[in-house]
Amino acid sequence: MAAELEGRETGDGRTVYVDRGETERGAQGPFFVVFVTEDRETRWGYFCGNCDSLDTAMDTMGRIQCNVCGNIRKPDEWDAAHE
Question: Which pTM was predicted?
């Protein structure tokens, strides 16, 4: 059974839906997957579980970073050359 979605308002007044059952590990706390609608059809981004912020970014290597607290998930194919 899928986790219940939690509605959150974005900075521009839209509602997006946080799925606390679908996570990515961050250095300071988990990142939760966020969807555009309750049907989980389209991903919107990530919600930082460390500071409860929707202000996150992902780069082309899969690194997720919270722009508020600095919580980070390392890239999928990380090695010292990526630093």
Answer: 0.85
